[in-house]
């Protein structure tokens, strides 16, 4: 991961880069000798990713969101991206569906969309959808989406974000997808996936964990997504995780 992203992560989540007092009681070279020591020392699976047992299924998280929704942007930048950075790759599988409270209609055989935050949000949704389509690999496109969502403009910073995080991607191909039939077809698929949610989504961001959405799961994800994923992805009963942090203010991650 680019140093700039890691620096921003530390700025967004003060203290994540500092060793805890418990860590200080164990020599660093011993932290990853066993899950017992790692849990007691630092309670951070990313420090000891090699301890994960083969075959443990990743936690599957679906984020249904809108590109210009302020609450969605906060959750993606402050919770989801930081959690993804800290956890080993095998612990978490993420699916992003940019659509949210949009509406679609078929006009003369072509799909047209109306978005909660106007045409620019529809464009942002389309850019991120086409980016995912062209990049294929999550670890390639997610840092670019993070860059877009954390920057000044979701719709105007694509080339700059590609240059920093994914220079191998062709911005012209993404633009062609956005302007052509492929982008509309992909957005229609996002609409179908959003409309198929059970229970139906009531706000965004809407978090689905291992195929389920409940008020409790949503609240835990909003309070500490990292803590939630760590509790669900348990590498044996010896891993212990601390209590859920105090809930975030109501509505901070909802729109």
Question: What would your notes on this structure say?
Answer:
The chain is mainly α. The protein folds into 2 domains: 30 residues, no CATH class; 175 residues, 3-Layer(aba) Sandwich (Glutaredoxin). It has 10 helices and 5 strands. The strands form 2 sheets. A 3-stranded mixed β-sheet has the order 2-1-5. A two-stranded antiparallel sheet has the order 3-4. Helix 4 links the parallel strand 1 and strand 2. The longest helix has 18 residues. The chain is globular and about 45 Å long. The two termini are 30 Å apart. 36% of the residues are buried.
For the biggest β-sheet, the strand order reads 2-1-5
Helix/strand order:
HHHEHEEEHHHHHEH
Sequence stretches where pLDDT stays below 50 over 5 or more residues:
2-34, 44-52, 235-244
- Morphology call: globular
CATH superfamily of the largest domain: Glutaredoxin
CATH class of the largest domain: Alpha Beta
In round numbers, the mean pLDDT is 82
What's the gyration radius in Å? Answer: 19 Å
Q: What is the terminal-to-terminal distance?
A: 30 Å
Helix content range: 40-55%
The proportion of residues in beta strands is: 5-15%
Q: What fold name goes in the CATH topology slot of the largest domain?
A: Glutaredoxin
In DSSP terms, counting alpha (H) and pi (I) runs of 4 or more, how many helices? 10
Structural class: mainly alpha
Number of strand elements: 5
Please identify, by name, the CATH architecture of the largest domain: 3-Layer(aba) Sandwich
């Amino acid at each position: 991961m680019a140093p700039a992203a890691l620096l921003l992560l530390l700025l967004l989540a003060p203290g994540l880069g500092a060793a805890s007092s418990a860590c200080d009681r164990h020599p660093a070279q011993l932290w990853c000798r066993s899950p017992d020591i790692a849990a007691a020392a630092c309670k951070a699976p990313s420090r000891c990713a090699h301890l994960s047992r083969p075959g443990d299924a990743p936690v599957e998280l679906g984020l249904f969101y809108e590109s210009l929704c302020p609450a969605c942007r906060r959750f993606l930048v402050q919770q989801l991206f930081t959690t993804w950075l800290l956890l080993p790759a095998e612990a978490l599988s993420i699916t992003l569906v940019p659509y949210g409270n949009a509406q679609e209609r078929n006009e003369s055989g072509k799909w047209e969309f109306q978005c909660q935050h106007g045409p620019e949000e529809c464009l942002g949704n389309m850019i991120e959808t086409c980016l995912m389509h062209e990049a294929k690999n999550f670890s390639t496109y997610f840092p670019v989406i993070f860059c877009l969502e954390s920057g000044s403009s979701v719709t105007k910073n694509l080339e700059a974000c590609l240059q920093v995080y994914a220079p191998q991607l062709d911005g012209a191909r993404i633009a062609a997808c956005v302007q052509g039939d492929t982008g509309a077809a992909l957005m229609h698929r996002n609409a179908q996936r959003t409309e198929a949610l059970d229970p139906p989504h009531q706000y965004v961001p809407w978090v689905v964990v291992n195929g389920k959405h409940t008020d409790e799961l949503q609240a835990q994800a909003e309070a500490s997504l990292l803590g939630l994923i760590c509790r669900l992805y348990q590498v044996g009963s010896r891993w212990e995780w601390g209590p859920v942090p105090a809930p975030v203010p109501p509505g901070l991650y909802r729109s």
